Amino acid sequence: MRMEVHVHADIPIVEGVAREQVEQALKVLVEYLDVESISDVKSLEPDEPGIRYDEKELILYICWTGEVGRSFQQTLERTLQQLGPYCYEAVEVEVTYYRDNGEQDAELLFVGPTPQAIQEAQRRCMIEDVSALLGRQFSKDKVAEVVTLVNELFERESKEKSANPVAAERAFEPYSRPSRKNLH
């Protein structure tokens, strides 16, 4: 079963990482898409650049829409895991799946150099989402109360994870987010 997917991220890369290293990290995805290199990844949407690594700015730009199969999710996760060590900081990767019936599913994946950096990016994202949602109804003071609670929850979770390192640490993490119609 094929479906359409949109992937969007601006991933900062550590200074000194060569284009070849970025290409190697993306090899699993490039092979999945059956192209030779990231410069060959073309989007179904003509105004989207696909995948582009700006060596001067040290940013890997991903703005790509394409048709994928069921194994795409695992391929993308493996790719982000390979890319994680080259990231300057943790950032979100927005992934939207478009179903044949008109529905769409959106999720965030996080890629970064360390699990701690990823958790910080997740915290920032959660605070942005919660603040935007609550800001429609409540005053800044009331939103700040909830933000304080969110910070406390993340701090508690961080302490629990460091006390119980059960799972292997990964260079990416999934994160659910309600569907959004416009990504840009």
General description of the model:
This protein is α+β, with helices and mostly antiparallel strands and about 180 residues long. It folds into 2 domains: about 5-115 and about 170-175, no CATH class; about 115-165. Helices cover about 40% and strands about 25% of the residues. It has 5 helices and 6 strands; from the N terminus they run βααββαββααβ. The chain has helices at about 20-25, 25-30, 70-85, 115-135, 140-165, and strands at about 5-10, 50-55, 60-70, 90-100, 105-110, 170-175. It has a 6-stranded antiparallel beta sheet with strand order 2-3-1-4-5-6. Helix 4 (about 115-135) packs antiparallel against helix 5 (about 140-165). It is globular. The two termini are about 25 Å apart.
